[in-house]
What does this fold into?
Amino acid sequence: MSLRPFNFSAGPAALPEEVLRQVAGEMLDWQGSGMSVMEMSHRGAEFTSIATAAEADLRELLQVPANFRILFMQGGGLAENAIVPMNLSKGGKVDFVVSGSWSKKSAEEAKRYADAAVAASSSDSKFTTLPALSTWQLRRDAAYVHLCSNETIDGVEFHELPDLKALGCDAPLVIDCSSHQLSRSIDWSRVGLAFGGAQKNIGPAGLTLVFVREDLLGHAMSICPSAFDFKVVAEAKSMYNTPPTFGIYVAGLVFQWLKRFSYAGKTGVAAIEQRNIDKAQLLYAALDASAMFENRVAVDCRSRMNIPFYLSGKFNTETLTQAFLTGAKERQLLQLKGHKSVGGMRASIYNAMPLEGVQALVAYLKDFEAQYG
Amino acid sequence: MSLRPFNFSAGPAALPEEVLRQVAGEMLDWQGSGMSVMEMSHRGAEFTSIATAAEADLRELLQVPANFRILFMQGGGLAENAIVPMNLSKGGKVDFVVSGSWSKKSAEEAKRYADAAVAASSSDSKFTTLPALSTWQLRRDAAYVHLCSNETIDGVEFHELPDLKALGCDAPLVIDCSSHQLSRSIDWSRVGLAFGGAQKNIGPAGLTLVFVREDLLGHAMSICPSAFDFKVVAEAKSMYNTPPTFGIYVAGLVFQWLKRFSYAGKTGVAAIEQRNIDKAQLLYAALDASAMFENRVAVDCRSRMNIPFYLSGKFNTETLTQAFLTGAKERQLLQLKGHKSVGGMRASIYNAMPLEGVQALVAYLKDFEAQYG
It folds into this structure.
């Protein structure tokens, strides 16, 4: 393996080097077929085998129950903000837990199709906390409850999904898990539908994954485009329209990589989850110990994936922020600029980020503080 | 260049070999950035430069007027069947010219959103002709008129777009040009909106191109998802949601390839159009001269891109069809099986198919006829 820079992009994001090498090696001839995967009919034997294996591997990795369908779709999380209410709301009530920028957008978009209400919000804390369960005002007849299980911009993560039944709510839980899917296991008993763009932990942008419980299929509003009707897509095995074939292929290689992955005596998702915990702890510990940098999120809901941080107090100047980013690039630590809506810096440390990448960032934080602090 | 098989897939389809080689070569490090294009933030300087160049090159190649916006979207032609009426119909009347399987599907889907009527159809000829202009029953107050300018399954192509004004109709013309876009020039004075999936002449599946006249922006129905509202997408320069970045990159390389392309003393689209004419004439001439094979489409509307053909008369058996396809594969002539809805064979000879590929197919047709005829 060569020494590649460490890429902290929030998405599209770093991919495992061995996956990229395999993609490059197979670019002109996939396994003796004489074709690039990009050149294959999506209905041919070659691509069918690729898509079937990808779905089976993903199902195995996340232990997706048999009564869930896995759909390969297009449009990303933002399109799902419309597609989900068109499929599940029946034009009725839907409740949103707003814990950051993305869930806020989801609630806004759903108003086009449903009586969308905010059941709880942590906007008062500027999204540095999660809304306490005791404050959730769920409507008994809601068609579903939506939350974003990891807020990419705000760096807030649900480390345990709520048990809606225990809150007296029988509605299915919908989670937007774009930026942490496949980084940890999922408790499917608490979920009705999960969706996410692939461009964080899974593959190239343009592929969207939807996990949907079978009883939620078949309720789409008449205005739902056929190409986005979960039942139509499920019955066509994600081939109603031509799927993003190359994205599915890359995702499939990432799934194979993750199945081989081992760490701390574990394999697969358990292994990557442990490494993600270790990476996040290392970085948060360095930020908390620093007099110059800070992360502002409450300790119990800090994201393992997206860690926004800022120069603190008197150090929080545009000049020092720029100096930090310039110096980072010189050290081959890429794409650390914070989201434009919040500024500062952000380290996205998805599955493909090795421990060494976080160690290199922590070393730079210390050196920077020694120089400018 | 190595000797690759000739790939006649209807889509996803063959790409220029030198594009695939460049993609492979840049897979781990795009131009010294230390990142694969798949790993870049869509808002960073690197990817912005890729997307900007791709759009500019496409605009130059097709001489797209300044009052048209070019949008990079997702969902393919089938999604556009819903997205276009949501954006343009205002829930009113829309007229469809049905000349094959795809326009038929488009008309059906539009009924979800509009008073969609069939203004003309060539179903009586089993889609081997185009509906004569004199039969088109256009409604004066239609929001738009839709046609599919190249029917991929039926192999029927409009070689001249209709002048709706001359037919007494002021409505904009919408064309689904998925399977022949960039294979020839377009008369933009006759078009209001053109859309197409990329996976024929342009790049990987999952990228959809939309060319829309600016006065048609801003009329979306309230139920149109934000991610598919042409005005929202245009104002965000195709970055409202994360676009299919890798697909845009590959498309951009195809545009650069086409700008370099020369043939018969011409360059760019004029050159590829001339080669497409020559390739199609060669194959149709061989089919017409054969006593064993036939193409059933009327001469004046035969597609230059998709050429369905069948064993004729007594030769039209499942056994011989299978023998033909097996023999083709042995000669490295791939993906010649006809669409499942019509059977037989189909040669899709998009921009990336060299003249030599068609010559090899014609030689095989003759050899097969000599052996079995």
Q: What stands out?
A: The radius of gyration of chain A is 21 Å. The CA atoms of residues 196 and 219 of chain A lie 21 Å apart. The first strand of chain A starts at residue 6 and ends at 7. Chain A has a mean pLDDT of 97.
